[in-house]
Design a protein that fits this description.
8 strands; single chain
Length: about 170
């Protein structure tokens, strides 16, 4: 019985040390993004949200920040998305690392890098796509399948300030 107690204490200490090491190396369990956030000065629309037929919705900000509500959400594109993010749940969306990321557009090429949910460890995922025109984007490796996203202007857009993107 005494040895079992020592083993449990040792396992607990190792577990705590492992979590703290992961936080120290990756910043609260998040892997570093490979794309640097840079301001976007092109013509692709950034004053609203993009959506597909499954209501996967995301925002692109002029400062290079990306925000999504996740895929297949019950949240509609009209004012509901903005209302949800601007309401009392504001602290919630600002506390979810895998809703945030950065993007880069060069010519007609688009890259979006975000964190993926993964418990205490958030690996990154790089979406690749094309700019079809200033209000239509195609994501070639969108999960679960390639998809086209269309722009919809919104009267207000959530603040891009968050604790995950510098």
């Amino acid at each position: 019985m005494f040895n079992m107690k020592k083993i449990l204490i040792l396992l607990l200490i190792c577990s705590v040390f492992s979590c703290e090491l992961s936080r120290a190396v990756f910043g609260h369990g998040r892997h570093p993004l490979s794309i640097k956030r840079i301001p976007y000065i092109g013509n692709v629309a950034t004053h609203g949200a993009y959506y597909n037929k499954d209501l996967a919705i995301f925002c692109l900000y002029r400062n290079g920040v990306f925000l999504t509500n996740g895929t297949g959400s019950h949240v509609g594109i009209d004012s509901t998305f903005a209302e949800m993010l601007l309401s009392s749940s504001k602290q919630y969306y600002q506390a979810v690392p895998y809703w945030w990321g950065v993007y880069k557009i060069e010519g007609d090429s688009l890259w979006i890098e975000t964190w993926m949910p993964g418990g205490m460890d958030y690996p990154t995922y790089l979406y690749r796509g094309k700019v079809i025109n200033d209000t239509t984007l195609f994501i070639a490796n969108h999960l679960p399948k390639p998809d086209t996203f269309h722009f919809r202007a919104m009267p207000v857009k959530p603040d891009s300030t968050n604790p995950f993107i510098d």
